[in-house]
């Protein structure tokens, strides 16, 4: 059986890890033994934080909506309840954007939600 030299494949595998470790500090960027676990850990963080990012943005939208409905004499939870009762289905991202960029249309939604709570 012929002898197999693995230099080419090993080099290619290492190259892939080094590319992912670009920008790391110290030996983590250019020594395979330290770069490999560092890259694996970075990928774990990236996966986790893609999920966390969604939570963080939702929390931000809720805070913005809460701040926007306070002048109309509502809290966030009462506002959402009023929207559900009035049959308005607009997600929090859009509501937050409306509160910032189009206060008049947000006010109309807030008034409808308030009216639905009173009825």
From TrEMBL:
<keyword id="KW-0689">Ribosomal protein</keyword>
<dbReference type="InterPro" id="IPR005813">
    <property type="entry name" value="Ribosomal_bL20"/>
</dbReference>
<protein>
    <recommendedName>
        <fullName>Large ribosomal subunit protein bL20</fullName>
    </recommendedName>
</protein>
<dbReference type="GO" id="GO:0003735">
    <property type="term" value="F:structural constituent of ribosome"/>
</dbReference>
<dbReference type="GO" id="GO:0006412">
    <property type="term" value="P:translation"/>
</dbReference>
<dbReference type="GO" id="GO:0019843">
    <property type="term" value="F:rRNA binding"/>
</dbReference>
<keyword id="KW-0694">RNA-binding</keyword>
<comment type="similarity">
    <text>Belongs to the bacterial ribosomal protein bL20 family.</text>
</comment>
<dbReference type="GO" id="GO:0000027">
    <property type="term" value="P:ribosomal large subunit assembly"/>
</dbReference>
<comment type="function">
    <text>Binds directly to 23S ribosomal RNA and is necessary for the in vitro assembly process of the 50S ribosomal subunit. It is not involved in the protein synthesizing functions of that subunit.</text>
</comment>
<keyword id="KW-0699">rRNA-binding</keyword>
<dbReference type="InterPro" id="IPR035566">
    <property type="entry name" value="Ribosomal_protein_bL20_C"/>
</dbReference>
<dbReference type="GO" id="GO:1990904">
    <property type="term" value="C:ribonucleoprotein complex"/>
</dbReference>
<dbReference type="InterPro" id="IPR049946">
    <property type="entry name" value="RIBOSOMAL_L20_CS"/>
</dbReference>
<dbReference type="GO" id="GO:0005840">
    <property type="term" value="C:ribosome"/>
</dbReference>
<keyword id="KW-0687">Ribonucleoprotein</keyword>
<dbReference type="Pfam" id="PF00453">
    <property type="entry name" value="Ribosomal_L20"/>
</dbReference>
